[in-house]
Amino acid sequence: MNQTLLRGRTLTFLRWPDTTEDHAAYRYEEDGGLLLEGGRIAAAGAYAEVAAKAGNGAQCIDHRPHLLLPGFIDAHVHFPQMQVIASYGTELLDWLNKYTFPEETKFSNAQHGRRIARLFLDEMVRQGTTTVSAYCSVHKQSAEAFFAESHERNMLNIAGKVMMDRNAPEQLRDTPESSFDDSKALIEEWHGKGRQLYAVTPRFAITSSPEQLEMAGALMRAFPDLHMQTHLSENHAEIAFTGELYPWARDYTDVYEHYGLLGPRALFGHCIHLSDREADALSQSGSVAVFCPTSNLFLGSGLFDYQRYRRRSKPLRIATATDVGGGTNYSMLRTMDEGYKVIALNGEKLNPFASFWQLTRGNAEALSIADRVGTLDVGTDADIVVLNPSATPAMRLRMETAGTLAEQLFLLQTLGDDRAVVETYVAGKPAKSALPAVVT
Ligand code: GUN
Ligand code: ZN
């Protein structure tokens, strides 16, 4: 069996780090080693001990003095929006109608979907992101393109065909029946194939009829181990329109609740303006609120109250995400930098260990995949990011005065981007250095 032995400063989390002094929350090896075999981590710890377990033929890659962390996880992103990102001047509903829906119509063309899926996963690898939960377009072929590309790269990704049957251009509308049939066919073909996972993906209550949300609930009952992803409580106009479309509902969350869409694998993008009742309902069902800081700022949607949600007596499970193309950057480092500022505007702080916990183990726990990815634990998949906190002249200069690990992580979050990602390993294989140099 081929073995790869990585050497560098290894960092992995055991649980939420309460403060920068909470050293029991993580494991850090100044001279660490990771032995990779068969796509998994076969040994981890001090380099000398790990090296002693490696066979004679092991390929050694010395990444010192860089940091080795579990690959980043992006819990909510729209792969068909690569040519929507950086569209000027609108809030959510206008932004969807003016930029996003027209762009997504192009994905009726399978060849276009394949090209963008390839470039999207290239970009993820470039940014050190090894797992995403992705929205495809309404077209079945867009999800086929995404899964085929992801499977070929042996990446662990979650994705789903968007279900949407109203309040959108005709070319982007399916029907309750066709969305059920297409989703079911995709589930049967892709869910559990290699590392691929399927998420039932009704876009949001505005673009789904009651009959379609019924179908989404039926899919979740038929395939209970699937994820479900949608949008919730992002923007005031969206909330008001949802109230008009579902007049019987107590609130926005109640719409999804009514159709059986809450639960431990349910991922709700945004969740900015929740009432206490809604937050209680999400908490009690184990549902996940996905924090999308760059998108929430860019579309002027509002400030997600991360610390309040976390500390309430019925706490929310929280994930973080780019939400590209509403989001403005593919980098999870840039995303957490903006997240830190949003949390600061709510009068709180997020310590650097907590940030990196969130990007790795925290997001893996929120997606219920922490037994497979998100740590450097032995037996888990070898998805790893190699980070250089001195990647640019300005970072190198700041590193002269950044003594502690916490300071170096905060510097990486504040100044870092894809230039700080030296290598990305996907299932034990170097993937970033294998990328083509030019976009085609
Ligand atoms: N709500 C429904 N669809 C979308 C989308 O594509 N992006 C964002 N940010 N919100 C949405
Ligand atoms: Zn979104």
From TrEMBL:
GO molecular function, one term: guanine deaminase activity
Cofactor binding comment, as recorded: Binds 1 zinc ion per subunit.
All copies of domain Amidohydrolase-related, residue ranges: 68-429
The enzyme's E.C. designation: 3.5.4.3
UniProt key word Lyase: no
InterPro entries: Amidohydro-rel, Guanine_deaminase, Metal-dep_hydrolase_composite, Metal_Hydrolase, Metallo-dep_hydrolases
Cofactor: Zn(2+)
A Pfam family: Amidohydro_1
SUPFAM superfamilies, alphabetized: Composite domain of metallo-dependent hydrolases, Metallo-dependent hydrolases
Catalytic reactions on record: guanine + H2O + H(+) = xanthine + NH4(+)
Pathway(s) the chain acts in: Purine metabolism; guanine degradation; xanthine from guanine: step 1/1
UniProt entry keywords in alphabetical sequence: Hydrolase, Metal-binding, Zinc
Gene3D superfamilies: Metal-dependent hydrolases, Urease, subunit C, domain 1
Function as written in the Swiss-Prot or TrEMBL entry: Catalyzes the hydrolytic deamination of guanine, producing xanthine and ammonia.
Family affiliation: Belongs to the metallo-dependent hydrolases superfamily. ATZ/TRZ family.
PANTHER family: GUANINE DEAMINASE (PTHR11271)
Protein name (record): Guanine deaminase
Gene name, Swiss-Prot/TrEMBL: guaD
